[in-house]
Automatic annotation (TrEMBL), chain A:
Domain of life: Bacteria
Gene Ontology terms: cellular component: plasma membrane
Domain Cytochrome c assembly protein: residue ranges: 13-153
Pfam families: Cytochrom_C_asm
Bilayer topology annotation: Multi-pass membrane protein
Protein name: ABC transporter permease
GO molecular function: heme binding
Cellular compartment(s): Membrane
Upper classification of the organism: Bacteria, Pseudomonadati, Bacteroidota, Cytophagia, Cytophagales
Signal peptide: none
Chief subcellular location: membrane
Gene Ontology biological process: cytochrome complex assembly
UniProtKB/TrEMBL annotation, chain B:
Transmembrane segments: 47-67
Keywords: Membrane, Signal, Transmembrane, Transmembrane helix
Pfam families: CcmD_alt
Signal sequence, start to end: 1-18
Superkingdom, taxonomy of origin: Bacteria
The protein, known as: CcmD family protein
């Protein structure tokens, strides 16, 4: 385990986040009640997903420039971890919505567009597996990755804000980023949570990339 | 260097978005006792049971991840030193 300081940082941050998110004082808001603590678990999943998918598209572009297969390994594994975070985000969102908005899926613009974004990325993983040749697989999926990312950003950040009605804070004609992370006491857990979850995702990525490297070494 | 500066400035611009939220939380929200919260759970001290359970699950999962990490390191050492020797 070379260079393990970031793994230790990840565990320390997440221990702090879980303790802080469950125990620290939170604003007492109607309807939300204690569920505001989900901010540190549900919302951070999406931030983690964005970070992981951004790294994935960077590696896709790097692959297209260099044709090095390692870059493709990183690209697909970061996309895998990003999709995992996205699925966790949409599931936790449905649980939270069930108790605060009254139903798990209310066709909220942000819910719909994040579901579409996830389907685009699932199609990426299916597309990869349908190709045989390694270089062809890497090139086609790298190009698809760029387009998927280009669709992801407007789907999550622009289209939900152009609608008139969204239950998500900071959406539906409202340019606000997120009303709840404006509060400095919530931010003290929220930002470390984003870093912690993103690091955990990266850790899982590194494990799977190393397995891929061993596999390719054994194949040669 | 220029690259990092641009990334830094992009992050800075995020805070520009953050300024005009529809609802902003004030200190009054922290003391608003008319909203029901898990106060009884806290006064009984039972919330710490939940915290302990969640922490145990989390530590367990992290411990397992560390074990997998070490195993992969071991296999890496075997595979890559073998290649050098052969």
């Amino acid at each position: 385990m070379k260079k393990r300081w970031w793994k230790i940082l990840c565990v320390v941050l997440l221990v702090y986040v879980i303790l802080g998110a469950l125990l620290f004082e939170v604003p007492r808001l109607a309807i939300l009640n204690e569920t505001i603590r989900n901010l540190h678990f549900h919302v951070t999943m999406w931030f983690g997903m964005i970070i992981l998918l951004t790294v994935s598209v960077v590696y896709a572009i790097k692959y297209l420039r260099s044709n090095k297969i390692e870059h493709d390994h990183y690209s697909v594994e970061f996309a895998n971890a990003g999709v995992l975070f996205g699925i966790l985000g949409i599931t936790t969102g449905a649980i939270w919505a069930n108790f605060t908005w009254g139903e798990p899926w209310s066709g909220d613009p942000k819910q719909n567009s994040s579901a579409i974004a996830l389907l685009i990325y699932l199609a990426y993983l299916v597309l990869r597996n349908s190709l045989e040749d390694q270089q062809q697989k890497a090139r086609v999926s790298a190009i698809y990755n760029v387009f998927a990312f280009a669709a992801l950003i407007p789907l999550l950040f622009i289209l939900p804000r152009m609608t008139d009605s969204s239950l998500h804070p900071g959406n539906g004609g409202n340019p606000g980023f997120n009303a709840y992370d404006l509060d400095s006491r919530l931010r003290m857990i929220f930002y470390p949570a984003i870093i912690g979850w993103a690091l955990l995702g990266t850790w899982l990525v590194s494990l799977r990339v190393r397995i891929r490297k061993i596999k390719t070494a054994l194949e040669d | 260097m220029k690259k990092y500066l641009i990334i830094f400035l992009l992050f800075l611009s995020l805070s520009a978005f953050a300024q005009d939220g529809a609802y902003s939380i004030t200190d009054k929200d922290y003391g608003n006792t008319s909203v029901e919260m898990a106060d009884s759970m806290r006064s009984n001290g039972k919330i710490y049971v939940v915290v302990a359970v969640v922490m145990t699950v989390f530590i367990g999962l992290i411990g397992y991840t560390i074990v997998v990490d070490r195993k992969i390191s071991k296999i890496e050492r075997e595979v890559f030193t073998e290649k050098v020797n052969s």
